[in-house]
C-alpha cells in the first residue's frame, strides 16, 4: 500500500500554521482514535517530538508523523484542507474506510 499524502491545499495551510507558530521544528501529527459517529475518528495536532515507532513522511517541506497504531488505518489516505460553509478543516480521504459520517471526521473500516 502507498503512504499517506497531502493535497496542495493541506500543504499550504500546514505551512501557514507553522509559520504563525514561528517554530520550523513542528510536524503535523495525524492519528486515529476510537469514537466519533462511525467508530473511529481522525485527529490532527502539531508535535516536535518524534516517537521511536512513528512513521515519518515529508512532502513539499511539510513533515508528517503517524503513530504505529494509526498507520495501518491511514495507509493510502490523502489529507486535504477545505474551507466552505461548514467552516475550515482538514479532511481525510481514506480508501480503506467502508463508511464515513456526514461530518467527514469519523469512519468505519
Automatic annotation (TrEMBL):
Residues bound to iron-sulfur cluster: 37, 101, 103
Keyword Translocase included in the entry's annotation: no
Glycosyltransferase in keyword set: no
Family indicated by similarity: Belongs to the HesB/IscA family.
Species assigned in the record: Bermanella marisrubri
Alphabetical list of NCBIfam families matching this protein: iron-sulfur cluster assembly accessory protein, PRK13623.1
Subunit structure comment from the entry: Homodimer.
Full protein name: Iron-sulfur cluster insertion protein ErpA
Keywords recorded for this protein, A-Z: Iron, Iron-sulfur, Metal-binding
Cited function: Required for insertion of 4Fe-4S clusters for at least IspG.
Residues annotated as domain Core: 3-104
Cofactor: iron-sulfur cluster
Cofactor note: Binds 1 iron-sulfur cluster per subunit.
InterPro entries: ATAP, ATAP_core_dom, ErpA_proteobact, FeS_cluster_insertion_CS, HesB-like_dom_sf
GO molecular function: 2 iron, 2 sulfur cluster binding; 4 iron, 4 sulfur cluster binding; iron ion binding
Pfam families: Fe-S_biosyn
Gene Ontology BP, a term: iron-sulfur cluster assembly
Amino acid at each position: 500500500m502507498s503512504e499517506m499524502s497531502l493535497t496542495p491545499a493541506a500543504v499550504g495551510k500546514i505551512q501557514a500554521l507553522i509559520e504563525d507558530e514561528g517554530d520550523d521544528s513542528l510536524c503535523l501529527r495525524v492519528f486515529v482514535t476510537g469514537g466519533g459517529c462511525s467508530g473511529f475518528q481522525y485527529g490532527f495536532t502539531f508535535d516536535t517530538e518524534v516517537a521511536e515507532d512513528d512513521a515519518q513522511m515529508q512532502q513539499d517541506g511539510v513533515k508528517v508523523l503517524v503513530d504505529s497504531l494509526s498507520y495501518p488505518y491511514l495507509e493510502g489516505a490523502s489529507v486535504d484542507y477545505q474551507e466552505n460553509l461548514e467552516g475550515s478543516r482538514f479532511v481525510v480521504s481514506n480508501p480503506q474506510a467502508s463508511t464515513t459520517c456526514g461530518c467527514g471526521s469519523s469512519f468505519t473500516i
